[in-house]
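To whoever picks this up:

The parser on our side crashed when reading a file containing two proteins. I've narrowed it down to the boundary between the first structure block and the second sequence. Both blocks are reproduced below exactly, byte for byte. First block:
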Amino acid sequence: MTRTPPRRPARLEDAQAEAIIGAPDPAEASLLAHETAQALVDGGRGRAGDPELVARLVGLVESEGLETLAEMWSGSPANTLPGTLWRLYLIREWVRRDPRHIALNYRRGLELAEVAGVIAGVADTPGPEDVRRTADRILSGVFDGDLDVALDRASSFLKVLAAGSALGAESLDATDSDLSALVVQRASALLNTAEDLQHAAGLARAGTLE
């Protein structure tokens, strides 16, 4: 009787193996996100009189990398502290990378959202450095001010930018309808994030943003 040689086990592709071995447990990932976010905020507030510490926390992307923060917080819902922090750091990084375009859109948006501009606290005719400083001050308010006020300011900042993007889309519509539609989508996304932050501000005032 001829014996059939035993079959060698099929080899897992690297990606498949990593998915089985290294996939994080969703509950553990959520717990880690909440714990790191709370520790960061508590650490900053515990030493709110230390401007060097606050500056380091505001500049966390430069020291730790955006990818590190994304791994910790990007999957968190918008109505949570880690989800809110992720959005605030993204706003600051966006402003840091493209201050000229953002300052232009902000000036446009003030025509339609003057009240939001007052809440955001940006200069009346902001330049690139003004919007950069505003993004820094908004984020620093998480650590050395009232969290709900910082979130209200961030929400208003995005509302003005959304209005500015919408006006820019109108001017493009006659010459480049595809680009105009893309700008409208971006304005809508900014407004959605502004509303998320406004909701988070309400939760912070009620002491239920966790």
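<<boundary where parser fails>>
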Amino acid sequence: MSAITVFCDFDGPIADVSERYYATYRQGLAWVQTLAQAQADDVTVRYLSKAQFWTFKQNRVPDRQIAHWSGLEGQYIDGFLSQVSRIVNHGKLLDYDGVQPQARDGLDLLRQCGVRVVLVTLRPPDQVLRFLDQHDLCWAISDLYGMPEAEAAYTNQASHKIDRLQAAISAQQRQGYDLSQAWMIGDTEADIMAGQALGIDTVAVTCGIRSSSYLQGFRPTYLMPTLWSACQRLQQRTTLSPRRS
């Protein structure tokens, strides 16, 4: 089958997780503050603004350092990190996730051009499917390969993404799809490294959890601001035309 296949990460290109991560950060600090007050410890918590917090996350400032800049020390940093890991994928916090601006338009362009979108994510499939259903995006996805561990997306190790992409590629080839023009779109170094390791072109989008300057160091095939711009580039490069209705 000759349809072009795009492998795409979920968090970052499609789902905007910035509000959830910031809410998790604030709830983690509030939990520490309550604990410190109960133990009569003098801890002055400083809440970073969302802009400050997200800039640090995009530039890979360690969470431990972010906690320190937020007024925490020693055991309270450890407690904060453990609490964040526990609650980041809680159902109520997942509801903070939204659709990236123009991501829907980009996915619709790919659909019009007959491009198959296969999600390769470190999120559990049930979380992804719930999001797609809530935001009426199930039509955009041809297949999905996720992880069983709810914390995997937060740690986002490149080795896990390479394994998932390898599994997705192997399964698509068994189904008879031609992957000679396949792309990997993502917002982290793990996505770029996975595509490079498996010999497919990579598109790094800068609307997610990594900055443009950070991603540029991994030498993706293309560096684009959004999924929409990545889809436009794909259309131009492959000379695809939207189907006439």
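After patching the parser it read the second block fine. DSSP finds twelve helices and eight strands in the chain. The longest strand covers residues 116-120.
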